[in-house]
Design brief:
Layout lengths: L4 H25 L2 E3 L6 E3 L3 H27 L18 H18 L4 H7 L3 H12 L6 H24 L7 H29 L6 H5 L4 H10 L2 H26 L2 H21 L7 H17 L3 H34 L1
Antiparallel strand pairs: 1-2
Helix pairs in contact: 1-10, 1-11, 2-3, 2-10, 3-7, 4-11, 5-7, 6-12, 10-11
């Protein structure tokens, strides 16, 4: 079935804003500027400020939602159907997980490359699968277990690529290892968030916009004052996360979760290509292999192989049917010739 223009727009919006989100955060991390009280120039390392900015972006979706509801109610025939009443505290546990996981990931982004950061986030498949079995009582298929195993192999390959490419980069080897481990640790928290959302939140029909909805901060603002481009990077991060989360949830509802997974994988490719183009990192062959393995693992876990196998099976049945018809036709010809 062909996508509508609205669905194509959602897919493009998710891919574009998702890529901008990680790239803008890394761009801010790459800036150096003097701090307060005449301190020397140092890197902009304020992950918690970036996390707060991300939550502001998500919170802005709530304002847009109520604005749309207000406008819709002024029409003679409202078209927006509000969900059944639910307790807003249902969102508290997932929100706390989101805050914790995001803060850890922004710390990690200071220590490793943007492409590795995005690739290692694929480890969420492992922890989501295991936690869904333990807490949701879900039974995983053989292909999903195979996908988890392939993802583990992909993580090892990406980790090895990081170890090899850390020489000559701006990040120390110890920072890269710590950053990679923090990213994987954050995915455990993200997986808990997803399980909590599925168990307590997604059973309520909540509009996508509604669903999204103690560092030295003074030093951060002083650095912004000395390097105004940091503001542009932060605004890019805040704006993109709002559109990205809305587009991601809408893609899942309007198209499928599998499409969202494919678009997220393409986002990794875009981030990697841009990082190479602007010179933030150097090309390493192991990363290509690692990305391919991680993509295969995610595809197996999300059942992306099923349509391909069904198509191959259909072609096999068609060819065997044609062959059978040819044999039957040949037999009838032979009988007629004898008579």
């Amino acid at each position: 079935m062909a996508w509508s223009r609205y669905q194509l727009g959602l897919a493009a919006l998710m891919l574009l804003t998702g890529s901008i989100n990680t790239l803008a955060a890394k761009w801010a991390d790459n800036f150096s500027a003097p701090g307060c009280r005449g301190s020397e120039e140092h890197g902009f390392q304020h992950p918690f400020l970036q996390a707060v900015g991300m939550f502001l972006g998500e919170f802005s979706c709530l304002g847009v939602f109520y604005l749309l509801v207000w406008r819709d109610r002024r029409r003679p025939e409202p078209s927006t159907a509000l969900a059944q009443p639910f307790n807003p505290l249902l969102f508290l546990p997932p929100a706390l997980c989101d805050m914790t996981g995001t803060s850890i990931m922004y710390v990690a982004l200071n220590m490793t490359s943007a492409s590795s950061f995005q690739m290692l986030r694929g480890s969420v498949v492992i922890f989501t699968g295991l936690l869904s079995v333990a807490f949701l009582g879900r039974k995983l298929e053989l292909s999903q277990w195979l996908g988890i195993l392939v993802t583990v192999v992909g993580l090892v390959v990406v980790g090895l690529a990081d170890l090899h490419s850390s020489h000559g980069q701006r990040h120390k080897l110890s920072d890269v290892i710590t950053g990679d481990l923090l990213i994987i640790m954050a995915q455990v928290v993200v997986a808990i968030q997803m399980v909590l959302e599925e168990k307590f939140v997604y059973k309520h029909d909540v509009h996508p916009l509604r669903a999204v909805g103690t560092e030295d901060a003074l030093d951060a603002f002083c650095q912004i004052g000395h390097q105004p481009l940091i503001v542009l990077a932060l605004l890019g991060n805040i704006g993109s996360i709002a559109f990205f989360n809305f587009a991601g949830i809408s893609v899942t509802k309007e198209i499928s979760a599998t499409t969202r997974m494919v678009l997220d994988s393409l986002r990794t490719l875009v981030i990697w290509a841009v990082s190479l183009a602007v010179g933030w990192e150097t090309f390493h062959g192991l990363e290509v292999l690692g990305f391919g393995v991680l993509l295969t693992g995610a595809a197996l876990y999300n059942g992306l192989h099923r349509p391909l196998l069904a198509r191959l099976r259909r072609r096999g049945d068609e060819s065997s049917g044609a062959e059978r018809e040819g044999l039957l036709h040949g037999d009838s010809t032979a009988i007629n010739s004898d008579s």
